[in-house]
């Protein structure tokens, strides 16, 4: 069965205190993604719903307010992380 890789990407605000610059110690945003192999790419409205649901789940696991989790595109993730996933 053929599947499609779907990525859900996030920028977690510096104020969440989850990452810091190794040189300066300054708090910085954290970029994260979840990858899933799905039977097909979901329609845009379903993708957005799933993206938000994942943000809520990850925020709960991290014990951080969901407002700290910004939904971003895979392209924005790749630009900020510095490599293609």
Structural notes for this entry:
With 85 residues, the chain is of the alpha+beta class. The chain has one domain (4-81). It contains 2 helices and 3 strands, in the order E-E-H-E-H. It has a 3-stranded antiparallel β-sheet. The model has no long low-confidence stretch (mean pLDDT 95). Keywords: Plasmid.
Topology of this protein?
Layout: E1 4-12, E2 30-38, H1 44-62, E3 69-72, H2 74-81
Antiparallel strand pairs: 1-2, 1-3
Question: What's the gist of this structure?
Answer:
The protein is of the alpha+beta class and 85 residues long. It has helices at residues 44-62, 74-81; strands at 4-12, 30-38, 69-72.
Radius of gyration: 14 Å
Query: pLDDT average, as an integer?
Result: 95
- Report the span from N to C terminus: 23 Å
The helix/strand order is EEHEH
Helix percent reads 25-40%
Taking the sheet with the most strands, its summary is: 3 strands, antiparallel
Strand content: 25-35%
By DSSP (H or I, 4+ residues per run), the number of helices equals 2
How many structural domains are formed by the residues? 1
Structural class: alpha+beta
Shape summary: globular
The oligomerization state is single chain
Cross-sheet strand order for the largest sheet: 2-1-3
Question: Can you tell me the residue ranges where pLDDT is under 50 for at least 5 consecutive residues?
Answer: none
What is the strand tally?
Answer: 3
């Amino acid at each position: 069965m053929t599947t499609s890789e779907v990525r859900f990407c996030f920028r977690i605000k510096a104020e969440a205190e989850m990452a810091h610059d190794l040189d300066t110690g300054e708090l910085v945003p954290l970029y994260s993604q979840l990858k899933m192999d799905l039977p097909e790419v979901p329609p845009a409205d379903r993708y957005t719903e799933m993206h938000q649901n994942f943000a809520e789940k990850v925020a709960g696991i991290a014990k951080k307010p969901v407002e700290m989790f910004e939904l971003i595109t895979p392209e924005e993730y790749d630009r900020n992380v510095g490599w293609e996933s």
